[in-house]
Structure prediction request, 242 residues.
Amino acid sequence: MTASEIVDEFIACWNRMDVPAAMDMMAEDAVWDNVPLGPAEGKAAMMALMANFPPSQGTEFIVHHSAANGNVVLNERTDRFLVGGRWREIRVMGTFEINAEGKIQHWRDYFDAAQMTAAFA
Amino acid sequence: MTASEIVDEFIACWNRMDVPAAMDMMAEDAVWDNVPLGPAEGKAAMMALMANFPPSQGTEFIVHHSAANGNVVLNERTDRFLVGGRWREIRVMGTFEINAEGKIQHWRDYFDAAQMTAAFA
Prediction:
């Protein structure tokens, strides 16, 4: 799979809410940096971070634009979460770095924390 | 020039603080969307927005990653501004859409508004 295909598949895992499959696509020592919130390093920290999010009955990551340069993929998205019977939206851009084993080593998401807080209110 | 070259040159304009040259690279009806703040549409609105920013004695947009897909360029940056004798930094991702005339039609920057406010405090 190309770097772009790996990221497309990773997004697809989230969209079918298959967290184990998404985790499988990340390196054991991956760093997931939600830039305004700070990084989670390694799978245990990533799982702990997710456990802190409000429970979602649906997830839809809409990719508006995506481009790859070698092992790095950048995309522009609207991330939607069905929480408490209402879809919440966040405008996001993300950077994904794929390692030599085809796993996601770095995932950095850029968004406005205040927009996220308002969306989930 | 390719879409990537156009964006590289646009970044270079900012880094030499040549605002007229940067404006020249944008379409007359371009939309500059600082996502947490909202969009400025057209050159007059963009100039008015810039006039509201604190005066900068230096500008350095450091591009960490950049990738193009057709006429769309995405990049991950640290934008630095020398304001009041101190460099202020914002972590940013941006999307640039180039029109058929080779001008920037859309520029969307994603960052955390609170981080910007803290940086410029």
